[in-house]
């Protein structure tokens, strides 16, 4: 991956857990591509606190940024790794959210985690959700932890909806809402995606990484190379 000079970073974050500021600063200090000014500008939200990014604050930070809202608090994660289309968004300590085609495929370090996500036959996200002309049924195989809930086969139903106006950092985008229903014995989850009808890029979504544990993802400064 060839990074623009201003986008290079190891790990930086605004995150929602206690006691990670020193660790984040130490990690940043060990990365020669992050300046002292970047170290001094790192702000972390305590657990339960909200983050309030603005277009100006996002533009002033030279990293690809993803806002993640969890049940316990909110965070701004930094893109620190891209490998074969999978994006690694890093937080404090060992907290990571991995996405592919806008879909959360793995998490690390959260209270509930998605350890793996696979499509046994056909992946509509890889094909591009902007191409949906009607409902689609398929299956997803998912691993959750804790609890060793591995190999859970979810029956999935994707339903394209109407166009909606979604505001992100003061800019209103006309996006198509697409709902995904996931069900297995004793489980039911509804994911929601707001998709650019032109290229399928997912600007905002609400995705369950485990039963009862949803994450809301908002693209603040997106990495677009992998967009369909």
SS element count, helices: 4
Q: In CATH terms, what is the fold-level topology?
A: YmcC-like fold
Q: What's the mean pLDDT score?
A: 80
Percent helix range: 10-25%
Question: H/E series, N to C?
Answer: EHHHEEEEEEHEEEEEE
Supply Rg.
Answer: 17 Å
Number of strands: 13
The CATH architecture assignment turns out to be Beta Barrel
Q: Can you tell me the number of structural domains?
A: 1
Tell me the β content. Answer: over 45%
CATH superfamily placement: YmcC-like
What is the terminal-to-terminal distance?
A: 18 Å
Q: CATH first level: which class?
A: Mainly Beta
Largest sheet: 13 strands, antiparallel
Low-confidence stretches: 1-47
- Helix and strand content put the structural class at mainly beta
| Gross geometry | globular
Description:
This protein has 228 residues and is mainly beta. It has one domain: YmcC-like fold. It is 11% helix and 49% strand. It has helices at residues 21-29, 36-41, 55-59, 124-127, and strands at residues 13-14, 65-70, 73-83, 86-90, 96-100, 103-108, 113-118, 136-145, 149-168, 171-184, 187-195, 202-210, 213-221. Strands 1, 2, 3, 4, 5, 6, 7, 8, 9, 10, 11, 12 and 13 form a 13-stranded antiparallel beta sheet that branches. The radius of gyration is 17 Å and the shape is globular. The two termini are 18 Å apart. 31% of the residues are buried. The model is unreliable at 1-47 (pLDDT under 50).
């Amino acid at each position: 991956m060839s990074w623009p000079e201003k986008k290079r970073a190891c790990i930086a974050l605004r995150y929602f857990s206690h006691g990670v500021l020193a660790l984040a600063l130490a990690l940043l200090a060990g990365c020669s591509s992050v300046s002292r000014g970047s170290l001094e500008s790192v702000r972390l939200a305590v657990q339960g606190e909200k983050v309030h990014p603005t277009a100006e604050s996002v533009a002033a930070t030279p990293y690809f940024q993803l806002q993640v809202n969890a049940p316990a608090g909110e965070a701004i994660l930094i893109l620190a790794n891209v490998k074969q289309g999978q994006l690694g968004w890093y937080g404090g300590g060992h907290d990571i959210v991995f996405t592919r085609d806008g879909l959360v495929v793995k998490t690390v370090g959260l209270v509930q985690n998605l350890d793996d996500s696979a499509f046994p036959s056909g992946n509509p996200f890889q094909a591009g959700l902007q191409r949906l002309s009607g409902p689609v049924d398929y299956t997803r195989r998912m691993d959750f932890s804790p609890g060793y809930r591995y190999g859970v086969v979810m029956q999935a139903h994707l339903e394209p909806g109407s166009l909606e106006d979604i505001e992100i950092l003061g800019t209103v985008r006309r996006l198509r809402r697409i709902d995904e229903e996931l069900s297995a014995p004793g489980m039911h989850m509804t994911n929601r995606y707001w998709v650019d009808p032109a290229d399928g890029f997912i600007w905002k979504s609400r995705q369950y990484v485990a039963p009862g544990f949803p994450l809301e993802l908002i693209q603040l400064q997106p990495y677009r190379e992998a967009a369909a």
